[in-house]
């Protein structure tokens, strides 16, 4: 039996998990009591299952959050580098957003009618991303789902293509993975009653020949992808891959959908603007309204015209897109304030060098201790991976995951007032993050590694 896990003694990893779980239990009696009370009415004791993904013995109940500081029900404070897994990427309750929500709260929350704010928001989105036409939904899942419908209607093709290891919210069509070279349903799906692989192709990220082969029959309506995979660890595009992707789509009449929901961390205008991508559609959820449920999808003028033609051809009836609360006035108030005053070039000018400092700091702690790990970052997002080489695709990223080590590190940090994303080893910095907070996170990770290696 191997004695090492990701270069660390398994015995030490197991001991840290036990020790940190015990410390968590002792330190959080109020959260523990709230968790017990919540089980009376909530399935598994939480209103949504992913609140259990922190791997704590019971959920951490939050009392308050502002900027990058989170306070729990027991009165402990945390430097928050998770930031709602990107939903609060620009800080908890940014003042302009909080002010806009408060001002609107007593004047109606949803009308099913537009207000003058739509003019300003549309202009801000075009300014930020370079696409002229937009629509609003409630979550990134909705935006992606609606865009897939439009792509199929425009091209009159049924199939889509995704990359192994992708994540585009809860869109059924994208829950496909590769196993032994063939497409399968993503493991763990509940209640799936029809074959997703009939209309979804899947290939590895960064594999240009496989992509070209999958598109050559001209039966794929669109490729939907993040420009860098971020939910299976971090997989960066290799040189020339995104250019080849765009060309393969153009050559085969396949539409290109860029999901910026995580890669908005790259810079102002996301990966798309920073690296000059030319998608047909762009989707963005999570942080676009400062943490309020909201998403947008944008498109080129040519695509907007093709959408109008497809709508006319479909005739009257229900499109299958839209929800009653989509594009409500509260979303627009929050989104306008966020786009005009929070998600600014000045904010990124603070965030990007600070995230670089964080990434290189963690990298130095890893190198100093001779661990076979690496750090990748995309703008304000950084992630340490417990493997020596940067993964080229989803399969390699999956193989690089070391659950026990990651759990030990996450618990160690949480018990010392530091939060990183529970699903993987992702960190985010916001406009409110300080250099002192970054230094504390880096130093605490170093201390954790020392204890693990002892």
UniProtKB/TrEMBL annotation:
Cofactor(s) demanded: pyridoxal 5'-phosphate
GO-annotated molecular function: pyridoxal phosphate binding; transaminase activity
SUPFAM superfamilies reported for this sequence: PLP-dependent transferases (SSF53383)
Cited Gene3D superfamilies: Aspartate Aminotransferase, domain 1, Type I PLP-dependent aspartate aminotransferase-like (Major domain)
Segments passing through the bilayer: none
Protein family per UniProt: Belongs to the class-III pyridoxal-phosphate-dependent aminotransferase family.
Name the UniProt record assigns to this protein: Glutamate-1-semialdehyde 2,1-aminomutase
Native source organism of the sequence: Dongia mobilis
């Amino acid at each position: 039996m191997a004695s090492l896990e990701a270069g660390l003694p398994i015995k030490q990893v197991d001991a840290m998990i036990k020790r940190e779980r015990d410390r968590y239990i002792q330190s959080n009696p109020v959260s523990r009591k709230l968790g017990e009370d919540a089980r009376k009415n909530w399935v598994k004791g939480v209103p949504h299952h992913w609140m259990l993904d922190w791997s704590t013995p019971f959920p951490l109940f939050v009392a308050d959050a502002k900027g990058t500081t989170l306070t729990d029900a027991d009165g402990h404070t945390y430097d928050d580098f998770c930031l709602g897994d990107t939903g609060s990427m620009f800080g908890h309750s940014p003042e302009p957003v909080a002010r806009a929500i408060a001002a609107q709260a007593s004047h109606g929350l949803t009308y099913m009618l537009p207000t003058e704010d739509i003019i300003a928001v549309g202009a801000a989105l075009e300014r930020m991303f370079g696409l002229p036409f937009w629509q609003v939904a409630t979550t990134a899942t909705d935006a992606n789902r609606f865009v897939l419908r439009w792509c199929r209607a425009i091209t009159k093709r049924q199939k889509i293509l995704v990359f192994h290891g992708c994540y585009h919210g809860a869109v059924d069509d994208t829950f496909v993975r590769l196993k032994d070279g063939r497409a399968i349903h993503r493991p763990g799906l509940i209640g799936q009653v029809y074959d997703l692989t009939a209309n979804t192709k899947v290939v590895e990220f960064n594999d240009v020949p496989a992509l070209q082969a999958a598109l050559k029959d001209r039966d794929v309506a669109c490729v939907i992808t993040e420009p860098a995979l971020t939910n299976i660890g971090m997989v960066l595009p290799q040189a020339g891959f995104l250019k080849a992707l765009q060309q393969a789509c153009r050559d085969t009449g396949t539409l290109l959908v860029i999901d910026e929901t995580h890669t908005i961390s790259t810079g102002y205008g996301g990966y798309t603007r920073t690296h000059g991508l030319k998608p047909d559609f762009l989707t963005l959820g999570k942080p676009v309204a400062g943490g309020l449920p909201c998403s947008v999808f944008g498109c080129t003028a040519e695509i907007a015209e093709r959408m109008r033609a497809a709508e006319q051809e479909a005739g009257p009836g229900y499109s299958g897109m839209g929800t009653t609360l989509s594009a409500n006035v509260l979303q627009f108030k929050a989104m306008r304030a966020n786009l005009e005053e929070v998600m600014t070039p000045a904010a990124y000018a603070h965030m990007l060098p600070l995230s670089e400092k964080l990434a290189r700091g963690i990298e130095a702690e890893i190198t100093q201790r001779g661990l076979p790990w690496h750090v990748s970052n995309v703008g304000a997002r950084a992630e340490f991976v417990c493997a020596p080489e940067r993964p080229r695709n989803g399969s390699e990223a999956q193989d690089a995951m070391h659950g026990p080590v990651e759990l030990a590190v996450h618990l160690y940090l949480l018990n010392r007032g530091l939060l990183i994303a529970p699903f993987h080893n992702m960190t985010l910095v916001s406009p409110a993050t300080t250099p002192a907070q970054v230094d504390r996170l880096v130093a605490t990770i170093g201390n954790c590694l020392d204890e693990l290696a002892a």
